[in-house]
Amino acid sequence: MLSNLTAQPQDKILALMGAYRADPRLDKIDLGVGVYKDATGTTPIMRAIKSAEQLLWQVQETKSYVGLAGDPAFSAAMYDLVLDGAVSADRLSAVATPGGTGAVRQALELIKIASPKTTVWLSNPTWPNHPSIVKYLGMTLAEYRYFDAENGAVDFDGMLADIKAIPPGDVVLLHGCCHNPTGANLTSEQEDQIIAALATSGAIPFVDIAYQGFGDGLDEDARFTRKIASQLPECLIAASCSKNFGIYRERTGILMAISPSASLQAVTQDNMAFLNRQNFSFPPDHGARLVTMILGDDSLRSTWATELEQTRLGMLGLRQHLSDELRQRTHSDRFDFLATHRGMFSRLGVSAEAVETIRTDFGIYMIGDSRINIAGLNAQTVPILANALAQITK
Ligand code: LMR
Q1: Ligand 1 nearest-atom number relative to CA 127
Q2: Whose CA is nearest to atom 1 of ligand 1?
Q3: CATH class entry, domain 11-44+306-393
Q4: What is the pTM of this model?
């Protein structure tokens, strides 16, 4: 049986991680996988997480199962963090999942149960694992325009036209904030137009929000998700705690579903718990418990929010620094968009050959589509990247 297996296509983000690790150069720079790094290149455990872990070690008396949907207190805390009461809680179904990816996977499976023939519309471009999972599940996939590579900005006219034309009942996967891979985001007015188009077309929004707090702030980054939940009859939301709590390996995420009416909540919740049971049974608890403890305690919450804000401002500073360096070195405004983009990523808009040359000649690793992880930079490496880009794009 196992002899029937053939190699799977490589995930380009994970493949780059391997290539970076194998490179013996000491001055190599990793701008690949979306993991936050501080100025010393480490991915710190946040202070609030350390404190919560210490406390948990003291008070936790059992590791027995919690429940198929996870701890209801985690769902309540995440409902507050992401939705802040934007929609009445009696329409909310929620299950804890192994990370944001687990939530995406469960959402797609829920869609498949409810509406097996539906088409899932993805932004072009999007996180490569989105189309990969959709295809793996044998679902139909389509793309809406999103990015104007020429200007490093959202192709809003293209996006709006495509969303308006989506048939009722099809699912549209939207990035809640900090678009991955481009870093280009909608303005609040543009969000309103997209929501109006969805309301007219009857397409169903599915929001993937993995970077809340990394863009403009915790509430600002949840704005689009909250408007969607409050203004449209139904939606799905996959939220991740990997990045904003720095608990990548704990696999902490949640799938939330907003039903059109409270009477549909129980059957939705039941299907989501069923899916957890089929795929992995009980969801991981450790990370979810830490998140619940932090969000439910004023002091821990404020420690966490302060550190997250420092992280966010640090990335904004690096964006401005890189944009300034590139302006000086290229004598052009070509890369000014870097300062207006938000989140961990920006797509530079240079060719695959340029990406390759920057990797071989300068030891700087970015994804082949020229996506960089801003947090992989620091004050010393910004000029090194700017110099490489200026030389390559001369
Ligand atoms: C990324 O886009 O780099 C992150 O979301 C990490 C991943 O799993 O791909």
Answers
A1: 2
A2: 34
A3: alpha beta
A4: 0.97
pLDDT in tens, 291-334: 999 999 999 999 999 999 999 999 999 999 999 999 999 999 99
Q: Residue 134 is which amino acid?
A: V
Q: Is 210 designated active site?
A: yes
Show the ligand 1 pocket: residues with CB < 6 angstroms: 13, 33-34, 127, 129, 180
What is the C-alpha end-to-end distance of the chain, expressed in Å? 54
**Which atom of ligand 1 has the smallest separation from the CA of 33?**
3
Instruction: Give the start-to-end residue ranges of the domains of the chain.
Output: 11-44+306-393, 65-296
Within 13 A of 16's CA, how many CA atoms are on the CB side?
Answer: 25
207: CA distance to ligand 1 center in Å?
Answer: 16
Amino acid at 210: A
Backbone angles phi, psi at 250, to 5 degrees: -80, -15
The CATH classification number of 65-296 equals 3.40.640.10
Indicate which atom in ligand 1 lies nearest the CA of residue 32. Answer: 3
The residue ranges of DSSP E strands in 163-315, in sequence order, are: 171-175, 204-209, 235-240, 253-258
**How many residues in total does the chain contain?**
394
Q: How far apart are CA 343 and CA 176, in angstroms?
A: 11
Q: Output the DSSP codes for 314-333.
A: HHHHHHHHHHHHHHHHHTSS
Asked if 236 and 118 touch (Cβ cutoff 8 Å), the reply is: no
- Output DSSP code: residue 11: P
pLDDT digits (tens, 9 = 90+) for 111-164: 999 999 999 999 999 999 999 999 999 999 999 999 999 899 999 999 999 999
Q: Tell me the C-alpha distance between 18 and 264, whole Å.
A: 45
Among the listed residues 243, 257, 288, 304, the single catalytic one is 243
* Token pair recorded at residue 348: 């530079």
